[in-house]
């Protein structure tokens, strides 16, 4: 069995196009996007999502299991893992945009960002931005999490297309999309995705202090 393992986030239509093209050549496509960003890749803690022919999935399981602690089988057809990855990424994007706005609001209101971080991570507001991106790349003012904003923007657009294709209202996600689009229009495409904070700060006329 010849296999092609796709680890990229490209959306369902493109994966189906690849599957059709490869089927004509006797190649089985396994859909296998990953989540966790550069830090997860370095640490071997990626979340691996996979879908495709069950026999093909089992054949590559020993290899893809090495990439992270969590391996989730999304379905038996290529494309299912794309849908799962896009649900993850749009939630991550919404969390990052909302966290950036909330932290700028709190800091401009007189709160220490470290105090906010501790309280939020002990409370109901905890998310992937407060748990990882902010302590690693925002409160240090390094803005070097490791992924450029245009990559996240691509995933946001794919998620919005998926939602629209399914007839799902994506109003909150659309609002977050506009936050990133606004930064992109101002030249943020090649900046780190955590730099979204700087664009919110500029519009707020306030800059959070470096605390680490």
- What is the count of DSSP helices, taking H or I runs of 4+ residues? 9
Range of strand content? 5-15%
**How many domains, as an integer?**
2
| Range of helix content | 55-70%
Pairing-aware structural class of the strands and helices? mainly alpha
The helix/strand series, from N terminus to C terminus, equals EHEEHEHEHHHHHH
CATH superfamily of the largest domain: N-(1-d-carboxylethyl)-l-norvaline Dehydrogenase, domain 2
**Can you tell me the CATH topology of the largest domain?**
N-(1-d-carboxylethyl)-l-norvaline Dehydrogenase, domain 2
CATH first level of the largest domain: which class? Mainly Alpha
What is the CATH architecture assignment of the largest domain? Orthogonal Bundle
Distance between the termini: 52 Å
Q: What's the shape?
A: elongated
Q: How many runs of DSSP E, i.e. beta strands?
A: 5
Poorly predicted ranges (pLDDT <50, ≥5 residues)?
A: none
Order of adjacent strands in the largest pleated sheet: 3-4-5
Question: What attributes does this structure have?
Answer:
212 residues, mainly alpha, Rossmann fold, N-(1-d-carboxylethyl)-l-norvaline Dehydrogenase, domain 2, 2 domains, three-stranded mixed beta sheet, two-stranded parallel ribbon, 9 helices, 5 strands
What does this structure look like?
By secondary structure, this protein is mainly alpha-helical. The chain folds into 2 domains: 2-76, Rossmann fold (3-Layer(aba) Sandwich), CATH 3.40.50.720; 84-204, N-(1-d-carboxylethyl)-l-norvaline Dehydrogenase, domain 2 (Orthogonal Bundle). The protein has 9 helices and 5 strands. The protein has helices spanning 12-23, 37-43, 54-64, 80-108, 113-121, 128-138, 149-165, 171-185, 196-204; strands at 2-6, 27-31, 34-35, 47-51, 70-75. The strands form 2 sheets. A 3-stranded mixed sheet has the order 3-4-5, with helices on both faces. It has a two-stranded parallel sheet with strand order 1-2. Strand 4, helix 3 (54-64) and strand 5 (70-75) form a beta-alpha-beta unit. The longest helix is centred in the middle third of the chain and has 29 residues, at 80-108. 36% of the residues are buried. The mean pLDDT is 97.
């Amino acid at each position: 069995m010849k296999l092609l393992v796709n680890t990229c986030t490209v959306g369902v239509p493109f994966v189906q196009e690849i599957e059709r093209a490869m089927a004509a050549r006797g190649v089985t496509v396994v859909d296998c996007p990953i989540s966790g960003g550069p830090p997860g890749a370095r640490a071997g803690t990626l979340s691996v999502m996979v879908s495709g022919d069950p026999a093909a999935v089992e054949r590559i399981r020993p290899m893809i299991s090495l990439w992270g602690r969590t391996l989730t089988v999304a379905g038996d057809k290529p494309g299912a893992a794309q849908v799962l990855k896009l649900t993850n990424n749009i939630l991550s994007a919404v969390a990052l945009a909302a966290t950036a706005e909330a932290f700028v609001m709190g800091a401009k209101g007189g709160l220490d960002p470290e105090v906010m971080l501790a309280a939020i991570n002990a409370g109901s507001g905890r998310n992937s931005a407060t748990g990882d991106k902010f302590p690693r790349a925002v409160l240090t003012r390094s803005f070097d999490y490791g992924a450029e904003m245009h990559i996240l923007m691509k995933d946001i657009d794919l998620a919005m297309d998926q939602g629209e294709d399914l007839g799902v209202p994506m109003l909150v996600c659309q609002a977050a999309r506009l936050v990133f689009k606004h930064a992109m229009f101002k030249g943020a495409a090649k900046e780190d995705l955590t730099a979204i904070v700087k664009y919110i700060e500029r519009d707020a006329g306030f800059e959070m202090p470096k605390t680490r």
